[in-house]
Amino acid sequence: MLEAIYSFNNEMKELFRTVPKHASYTSPTIQKEILNHISNRVKRMICDEIDGGKFCLLVDEAHDESNREQMSIVLRFVNKDGVIMERFLGLVHVRDNTSQTLKNRIYFLFTHKNLDFKSIRGQGYDGASNMRGHFKGLQALISKDCPSAYYVYCFAHQLQLALMAASQGVIALQKFFTQLSFVINVVGASSKCSDQLRDAQAEQMTYFKSIGELETGRCLNQIGTLQRAVDTRSGSYLKLVSTLIKMFSSICEVLLKIIKDGTGSIRGDADSAYETITTFGFIFVLHLEKEIMEITDLLCQALQKQSQDILNALRIVASTKLLLKKMKDER
After folding, report:
1. Known Pfam families for this protein (predicted)?
2. DSSP H or E run through 124
3. CATH class as words, domain 50-153
4. Strand ranges across the sheet with 84-93
5. Strand, coil or helix: 53
6. Per-domain residue ranges for the chain?
7. Is the model's pTM score more than 0.85?
8. Nearest by Cα to 119 from 142, 87, 88, 100
9. Residue 329 burial (CB < 10 Å; 0-12/13-18/19+)?
């Protein structure tokens, strides 16, 4: 990073040339200070880009690796050239996820960045009660201060929850996802199992490469892992199902090793998991779900585009319904 800085700035290059030889400026404290300065500079550029204009506020919550509650803030606005822009303003730590706490932290950030909350012309959140509540939700609290800040429930979030609710209403699919979760728990039960899975994939790739049946290209043939899906991200289910199909033989190999060499109850769990994923019903639903999710995922991705409008979104929904109907009729 330091080399990149002084390669584009002669003044900084001269400064680094004259510093004491023992001063490397790469200690953790200095690194964090440099990153903080860069972050503040980027935020100032975003605020300058808004230039006192109107903007929409997009907020979501998440936990970081240390299990601290974080709030992500994104601003959506039209720049001077008439182009719709979405800028990630930053992550803000919050003590809790109550609507009042979220509002206070947002206003605190706006104050420090010289952004007027009266300029908010839209709010986009998920459907949690602390966000969309009509009386004490975040959207209600901000609407009291700025009546023009209309709230829109995220369309992509609604679609993903609707897809999960629809799938859970089908007994075969509900059973499939329960079995899928069980398989993930068994295969990822320990670091040893994860290592065995990676080794099995590496051996499989070596074999296919030796017989000339391995497709080559960028981002291909990467050794992956099975990760849990999230209900509010349908794309994560598509990724999980696709990964399971790709790693199917490797997973079966790992389960057979656990059955043979494992100890305790893990052997019984591995045997049940192996018996489950090798049944016709599980494999059929696995491939069927992949085809369905590939169609619905296109809709989810389209609804999250910056330049999307409601009329085009309705047309995309209609075309997605036709594709699903065509798939059903052909079966």
Report:
1. DUF4371
2. strand 120-125
3. alpha beta
4. 84-93, 69-78, 55-63, 120-125, 150-153
5. coil
6. 50-153, 159-330
7. no
8. 142
9. exposed
